[in-house]
Amino acid sequence: MITLKINDLEVQVEQGTTLLEAARSLGFPIPTLCHMEGLSPYGACRLCVVEISRENTGSRLVTSCTYPVENDLIVKTASERVLKARRIIIELLLASSPQSKIIQDIAAEHGVRQQRFRQEYEDCILCGLCVRMCKEQMVAEAIGFQGRGDNRKIGTPFDTPADECRLCGGCMYVCPACQLRCTYTQPEKAICGGCANLQPPCVDKEKFDDMMCYMEPCVACEIIKEK
Amino acid sequence: MRRITSIEEFRQFRQIVMEEETGDLSIVVCAGTGGQASGANDIIRIIKKHILNKKLQDKISLKITGCQGFCEMDPFVIIEPGSHLYPKLKMEDIPKIIDSAVNGDLVEELLYKESKKTCFESKADIPFFQKQTRTILGRNERIDPIRIFNYIKEKGYSSLEKVLSDFDPEWIIEEIKKSGLRGRGGAGFLAGKKWELARATKSLINNGQKYLICNADEGDPGAYMDRSLLEGNPHSIIEGMIIAGLAIGATKGIIYVRSEYPLAIKHTLIALRMARDLGVLGENILGTGQDFDIQIVKGAGAFVCGEETALIKSIEGKIGEPRQRPPYPTDKGIYNCPTCINNVETLANVPIIISIGADEFAKVGVSGNTGTKIFSLVGKIKNTGLVEVPMGTTIKEIIYDIGGGAIDGGTIKAVQTGGPSGGCIPASMFDLPIDYDSLAKAGSIMGSGGLIVMDQDTCMVDIAKYYMKFFMEESCGKCYTCRKGTQRMYEILEEISEGRGTMKQLDLLEELAYVVRDTTMCGLGHSAPNPVLSTLKYFKEEYIEHIKYKKCRAGVCKDLVGAPCQDACPVGTEVWKYVAHLQRGEFEEAYMAIREPNPLPSICARVCNHPCEDRCRLGKSGADPVAIRSLKRFITDRVDPSIYKQDAVPLNGKKPAKVAIVGAGPSGISAAYYLSLNGFKVTVFDSNPEPGGMLITGIPTYRLPREIISKEIASLENENLEIKCSTVLGKDITIDQLFKDGFDSVYLALGSHKSRKLGLEKEDIEGVYPSLHFLREFNINNTNLAKGKVGILGGGNSAVDSARVALRQYDVDSVTLLYRRTDQEMPAFQEEIQAAIDEGVSIRTLVTPIEILAHDGRLAGLKCLENKLGEVDSSGRRRPVPIDGSEFDVELDTLIVAIGEQPEQEATVPYEIDVDRQFRVKVDPETLKTNRKGVFAGGDLVTGPSTVIDAIATGKKAAKLISNYLAGKPLEIPAVTKIPEEHIDSNLDNIEKYSRENRAEQPHIDIAERRSSFTEVEKCFAMEDALGEAGRCLRCDLEFTATEDGESEKKDALAKEVQNDNS
Are residues A63 and A99 in the same domain? Predict the structure, then answer.
């Protein structure tokens, strides 16, 4: 067993566990996009960063989904440094893929209300869930990464239809960017239009007197207030 | 080759190789990749041909080596013995060198020289080599890389022999640990410790298989030391790898080398084969039962594959993508086997440590950073090449002592260490010792050892942008923050460099950079923001200039600069435009372009310091710049100024606001002129009997005839403008009185009219004059103060002017200029210095005056010390240091002191105007406001002695600001970029007719006439010279105007086609 401290709680976990699993088992929320149980950890989206240090050493940020637990590690899942980094990552995500409901929801949870970069409308954040799904669960390896840097993309070998593909749809099922589209008309202007997509949408809240809203703050409500 | 099967046999074999006779005389050619690119292959061909033709085979031998490091001098050869280095050879030089070498002679004119004077006979005396410690690189010079015997003769494989004869891996690791050798790849992890970890890990796969990798994936732009080692001495790497492999218990070694290094691969392949044939590599090495073999894996050129985990993936045939560490490669590397990865240079050090012993090795360098390090010194530096110095050497020593400092005329402003992942270190921090820890503290890294030198023509925003583009393309793309973060940083930098940036974006850039550094997985991502962060830390003012003032001081960012000549001009003259009009023979249009931004064009045509020529792209590309000032002179001499008419704003019956301007120099006159055009009533006061300020009192008439000044100023007069001469501030008028007299605002432009004092005793005796007093007495009162032997102290324009004026006075026998630095560093304009020398002024440099000698209360001479050049100071120039005991006397009848000027304190101090210690008026640089309400100041009064064109520029600025002030508008001038707009075609007939290759020289009057008269020295260009010179212009403006034109032509053509189709 490995003993370490997570947010000042001393815990014992089995060797080989990741920091993410350990923290979540204690109930500490850590947002993730590229992590999925059943698929190997990858560490692409960097949302799950946590701050680690040891007695008498400087701290650094690592992705909790890939970092194995180690003895005497001191882990902070929501320190100032972590939250600052996460917010910038969310801004970067929103700037590229404003229409992903999952990203919009994470933004809302973290109080990110605007992004300051040039707006793009990309669909893919290259988290690699689909690639791992295809390889590890579907055992097909029909898709993979191509190129590097800003030319990196996901595709089939030589961009021709892959014989291995069984059109199972697993890749689309796991996608955080395109599986659930935010249908609010101008998602980049009202970050987290997520609530507007709820059924029944909470913009009709007046009709449902005792409806509880878990989103704080809720953009849809803000929009109504502004009107 | 017979395979050697025992250590004893190898010893005997070495003995035979060592005793083998080689001819005494040899010619050594440096033929690394750099040498070959400069033509070393041709040189080798000619050497062979000449030796064979003349049948000299028995007398001289040829040795072809890898890179020796002095790449600036490629292609070069060295004649041994004697180490005579012949640099930058042409093919026709070769026979001469070989013939004289055979006869035991030197070819003096081809030997290496510095500053065209000192000639170096032996390579060892050349500063570039002398100040290095070439433990590793030095062997390159003696070894033909494709001949294993050469290496063995240089004690090669003796370390392996030593290790094998009493095989103890623990001892090897202990020795390496004791040496303190740190990884030369950049991170600086202790090599011995890494080996220990790798040795300790038990491998459970393939019978305990372990790997040793030599990382030769050297991807940094501008770094090539690993390549040179593999090319020049591959056996030393192989030996190092065998020792490392045996120490950690690996039997397989891999050299991971970029396929962009074909010569390195070729030499390494040959070396591997020879080593195997000889029995030092492969199974059962030298019959000792130890196995170790090496294979080469060629990388496809991804920068990220230099990262160890990505490199392992690449060797395994997967996408080169780093993974999370731990587990470290020493635990799980290639195919999950323990793997030790070392850099080329680290491994090259291993045989040396084993051979000389760890203690001896650790004596070099500083504690914690032992041994030597090779740097590739590139960029804006005189001696480009590879240098090897002990760790802890300061940047200054490398750049100035070894590298020779800036390329002529430049000032080094920063150095980038560690390639793209490193940071830029400013010149002010060049005392920093180069070791892993100091560099990290300064915000940079050691990296693999690239040193990219930057001078004033390098834009730091552009540098950051360049590296961000590099990372954007070279990031593997796995981590979102690295891939997208570098893209976004590039995007922001692009906007800033195009003038669309905001201060908010600058904050965002910094915020993002820290997050990218924090949240990425591998070393590439961690260090990717370094170029941005370090330039933001040390050169933030350049970013702010780009954003706020839309100005790129280095003249690099195209969208802000436009045509460099126009950008360089303080008043923004469209130089390209008048040069283009001139080339077409349209003189009046050219005059309009000159006159539009500049009210004093004829004056500038004679005395401007022409920053436009300094930035001319033709000048930057190797040729001489276009003679822009002379062309301006040609136009202004030829065109009647009255064709340019600018009407003043009518006063509309209102009572106009009144402005008083004190000082009728270029700044005051320009401010007055533009204010009067704006409809203000302007009065200019001046203490001299004529307007002109320093133009009259300071500049001699042989440079600027008086009638030119008076004519030009007269042409500016209008009903709103009044000039009152012989009116002295403090005597005839006061600032308080001016306000009482109804002036609404005052602009102070009194200039700097006081010469600084030497601070020696007897400075006030007869015969010693401050330069401005001397010039003024002559220019205004026509008094000749100089006589007999005249000495001038100083090296600025005022000194040179005084020298040339003194030379023209009746009783003068000789004129000597005494300057404390060398002639290279004199701040006066080069053409003025040359003219003074031509006229007979002698210049004595490296002199410090220490005592004024007097006789009968009159000057008799000057006691001086000789100086030598010492340390480089913050201005990048070597500081003059007096030599003790070098006193000498100069006999003098007149001494003119010209060591600098400052404003007169009487001018402003009584009026409660804030001044600094040199009595320069303090103003807010953006609004020119002084501490008194309504009082503005500009020109030399604020800046100290500066140029005419700068004074005009501030005058114009003051006019705008005072207009705003009087109209109650905010005191700000919006920044505008001056991009060429009008398209002007060249006159092709004229280009053909008057074409010329070299810069046209400004014609001068006869030297004899110059010495005895004050007639204007410079003459105007002849027509064909002017048209030819204008034709040399590269027309940088067309880049901005031609495309649009082309497009509109295309559109026209398209429209026509459509019309035709319709009809």
Answer: no
Same structural domain, A169 and A87: no
Q: What is this structure's pTM?
A: 0.88
DSSP character at residue B1000: P
Based on the fold, state whether residues B257 and B375 are members of the same structural domain: no
Count structural domains, chain B. 7
* Geometric angle at alpha carbon B936, from B932 and B938, rounded to 5°: 135
Amino acid at B939: G
Indicate the number of domains in chain A.
3
Phi/psi of residue B507, each to 5°? -65, -45
pLDDT tens by residue, B713-728: 998 888 889 999 999 9
Residue B49: band (very low, low, confident or very high) from pLDDT cuts 50, 70, 90: very high
Among B88-97, B462-471, B490-499, B753-762, the range scoring the smallest mean pLDDT is B753-762
| CATH code where residue B335 lies | 3.40.50.11540
Tokens of B62: 């040829």
B822 and B910 assigned to the same domain: no
Select from B427, B458, B489 the last residue of a domain. B458
Q: Write out pLDDT tens, residues B497-512.
A: 999 999 999 999 999 9
The verdict on a CB contact (< 8 Å) between A152 and B477 is: yes
For residue A24, give both structure tokens. Answer: 């979540």
Q: How far is CA B935 from the centre of its chain?
A: 40
Select the residue from A54, A97, A115, A148 to test the B interface by mutation, using most B Cβ atoms within 10 A: A148
CB atoms near residue B335 (< 10 Å)? 14
Q: Give the per-residue pLDDT at A206.
A: 56
Residue B2 lies in a domain: no
Residues in chain B: 1063
Q: Say yes or no: B34 and B176 in one domain.
A: no
DSSP B833-860: HHHHHHHT-EEE-SEEEEEEEEETTEEE
Domain hosting residue B486, numbered range: 473-558
Q: What is the mean pLDDT of residues B990-1014?
A: 87
Q: Do B476 and A152 touch (CB under 8 A)?
A: yes
pLDDT: is A172 or B431 the higher one? Answer: B431
Domain CATH code at residue B544: 1.20.1440.230
pLDDT tens-digit map of B255-281: 999 999 999 999 999 999 999 999 999
The shortest CB-CB distance from B480 to any of A44, A68, A145 is to A44
User: Are residues A113 and A136 located together in one domain of the fold?
Assistant: no
Which of the residue ranges B13-27, B189-203, B1047-1061 has the most confident prediction, judged by mean pLDDT? B189-203
B681-685 and B658-662 beta bridge pairing: parallel
Compute how many other C-beta atoms are within 10 angstroms of the C-beta atom of residue A84.
14
Chain A residues at the B interface, defined by Cβ less than 8 Å, are 42-46, 49, 60-63, 66-68, 70, 81, 84-85, 88-89, 92-93, 95-96, 116-118, 125-128, 144-145, 147-152
Q: What is the mean pLDDT of chain B?
A: 90
Q: What is residue B813's three-state secondary structure? A: strand
Q: Are B930 and B922 in contact (CB under 8 A)?
A: yes
Smallest CA-to-CA distance from B416 within B442, B383, B390, B386 is with: B442
Is there a contact between B575 and B532 (Cβ–Cβ < 8 Å)?
Answer: no
Domain presence at residue B981:
no
Residue numbers of the domain that contains A158? 129-174
Say if residue B124's pLDDT is above 80.
yes
Between chains, do B520 and A151 touch, taking CB under 8 Å as contact? Answer: no
How many angstroms from the chain centroid is the CA of residue B1050? 42
Query: What are the pLDDT digits (tens) for B889-901?
Result: 999 999 999 998 8
